[in-house]
Design brief:
seven-stranded mixed beta sheet, four-stranded antiparallel beta sheet, alpha/beta, globular, binds pyridoxal-5'-phosphate, 15 helices
């Protein structure tokens, strides 16, 4: 896949993390661990503030490590601008606070990362921002939900935990001139570039694949310059900024992103196919398998691979899941995803705990549902581990 400039995505990643040339020529970018930056004088101050000269003043407003990571994401996504914040939720908060005022309206997918939904509901209850939740797989419902005050539409590229792939071009036409924000955390720019399909904003929890080593909290937002600038202003005002070291680590992680995404996609496909034939497994949710309800959309949207996230239903409900987790020796139960290690999670007890059992059932999330975040281990080791644990169930 070719971004808008002359380097391919793999090359941009491999050389990433640089904000400026450095006279001593280190082979890796430095960490600008500094609160502020000295300024030549009032003239230069005014020029930096007006954006006429590149430069930095105070790390809450911007720092070379923030800038380096955001600039790489902007290039990888083909975006005019990007901003990075202290977490995915920080970036989402900065955007919503920057774009919305009381009385405005948002159309959002019914299945969203739990905290994103909670944030929208919080803005609704406290600040009078209105939200309509719709089925991500039904574009006509998005059109029907539009109001004159609709300012933003939000969808995830692959939903959690049933891994339904959104048809982004269909949603872009459905919401007409309203900007569509795509949470592409599960896909990353190596598998999907939402802006190429007409979305105006793309969001990532960089705590996940972009960093990919389970040791960073970071968020990033890229897209139309005018919208990203609004988010950036809120970042500096509310203090949602990240710190230089987290950005430096994420830039380091980003260098291997294409390799990692290729690997997790191929391993996840193998495991999904194997699990689908297992008698202890009622159903597998992975967009790469033919039986998945959004497989056709996945073929269209994700030609380079379907990512590393899958879920499966074990026969026997919560008790069977408890036995399965106990029998897993090398795969930890961890409430995150996209680590280098493979991890399992239990949506009913973690991400979707705030729902009632009836609500979960309506979403198709049963008590036997296990989510697997496939990592970089030898696929044969993972298969053996899962099969022996399923045998113990
Ligand atoms: C983790 C996650 C977020 C939130 O990001 P944080 O970095 O944890 O704040 C948002 N969307 C999705 C899909 C996520 O997985």
């Amino acid at each position: 896949m070719q971004p808008a400039d002359d380097l391919s995505l793999e090359s941009i990643c491999a050389r990433g993390g640089w904000a400026a040339d450095f006279a001593t020529r280190p082979s890796a970018p430095p960490i600008w661990q500094t609160t502020a930056f000295d300024v030549d004088g009032l003239e230069q101050l005014a020029e930096i503030q007006a954006g006429k000269t590149s430069g930095f003043i105070y790390t809450r407003d911007g720092n070379p490590n923030h800038e380096a990571f955001a600039a790489d994401i902007a290039r990888l996504e083909g975006a005019e601008a990007a901003v990075t914040c202290a977490s995915g939720m920080g970036a989402m908060s900065a955007l919503l606070l920057g774009m919305l005022k009381t009385g405005d309206h948002v159309v959002a997918a019914r299945v969203l990362y739990g905290r994103t939904g909670q944030l929208l509901n919080q803005l609704r209850d406290q600040y009078g921002i209105r939200v309509t939740y719709v089925d991500a797989l039904d574009p006509s419902a998005w059109t029907a939900a539009l109001q004159p005050e609709t300012k933003l539409a939000i969808v995830e590229s692959i939903s959690n935990p049933l891994m339904e792939v959104a048809d982004i071009p269909a949603l872009v036409s459905a919401v007409k001139e309203v900007p569509l924000l795509v949470d592409s955390t599960f896909t990353t720019p190596t598998l999907l570039r939402p802006l190429d399909h007409g979305a105006q904003l793309v969001f990532h929890s960089a705590s996940k694949y972009l960093n990919g080593h389970g040791d960073v909290m970071l968020g990033v937002l890229a897209g139309r310059g005018s919208l990203v600038r609004k988010a950036k202003a809120m970042m500096a005002l509310y203090g949602f900024n990240s710190n230089p070291f987290e950005c430096w680590l994420a830039s380091r992680g980003l260098r291997t992103l294409p390799l990692r995404m290729e690997r997790v996609s191929s391993t996840a496909l193998k495991l999904a196919q194997r699990l689908a034939t297992h008698p202890g497994v009622a159903r597998v949710y992975y967009p790469g398998v033919e039986a998945h309800p959004t497989h056709q959309t996945a073929l269209k949207m994700l030609p380079r691979g379907f990512g590393g996230m899958l879920a499966f239903d074990v026969h026997g409900g919560a008790a069977a899941v408890a036995r399965l987790f106990k029998a897993l020796k090398h795969i930890p139960f961890s409430p995150t995803l996209a680590d280098a290690r493979t991890t399992v999670s239990y949506p009913t007890g973690t991400s979707h705990k705030f729902m009632t059992a009836a609500e979960r059932a309506a979403f198709g999330i049963g008590d036997g549902l296990v989510r697997l975040s496939v990592g970089l281990e030898d696929p044969a080791d993972l298969e053996r581990e899962l099969l022996q644990a399923l045998a113990a169930v």
